[in-house]
Amino acid sequence: MDESVCQAYEDEIQALEEEIRLLTEKYEDIRQESTFYSDEEILKSIKALQRETQGGTKGHESPSDLKAQLESLETDLSFLMTFTGFQFTSHSKKTLEKTGNRTVQKHRLSGKCHSLSFQLEFQLLEMQNNEKVSAVVSDLSIIMESGEDSDVSKFVSSTEEHGDLLTFFRSLSAYAEWCEHRRRTFLHFK
Fold first, then answer.
1. How far is the CA of 155 from the CAs of 117, 144, 161, 171, in angstroms?
2. What pTM does this model have?
3. Contact 176, 113 (CB under 8 A)
């Protein structure tokens, strides 16, 4: 056989082996996530869902009610995006650990605030004691397209250290709003 043909076959074999490895990892992740729930929890969820669907059909008289409710929610979302300046473009969540009263999830979030893009990645630890639920953010990683602005990079570093998402969103909103005002002002004078 020609050496180039053998190389092509070897490359194809390696690509298939990599695809098998990725699919195996994906399968293990899905299987692991499904094993977080006991049979009792699954049965409770199924019964709750059945009660919801039976009660849900009684609560909504027609599909037009659902459509009106959806339009109302879309209007509210549009208002919040206009009011805050935030537009979330993607979100993914992966459960890493789940026990009786403790859940660890990894979140990835990206979006824009006015004209500034951002990406967040963090772990959220939720613990339930009696009827109280507490949540702790850890391993916060923020990526922003701030250019060469050292104040923004200092702010991002500080926020990552403290894991304070609320402060991040509040500060980003104010900063992005003033950046937008500044940009419009300079455009006015050009």
1. 15, 11, 10, 9
2. 0.56
3. yes
Domain boundaries, the chain: 1-37, 85-189
Work out the average pLDDT over 98-120: 87
CA dist 107 and 27 (Å) reads 20
Closest CA to 113 of 174, 72, 186: 174
Helix (H, G, I), strand (E, B) or coil at 83: helix
Q: 3-state class of 36 per DSSP? A: coil
Task: State the average pLDDT for the chain.
Answer: 81
Element (H, E) at 92: strand 86-98
| 25 vs 107: CA distance, rounded Å | 19
Per-residue tokens: 108:
């990835």
Contacts of 81 (CB under 8 A, 6+ apart): 87
What residue type is assigned to position 69 of the chain? Answer: Q
Contact 123, 104 (CB under 8 A): yes
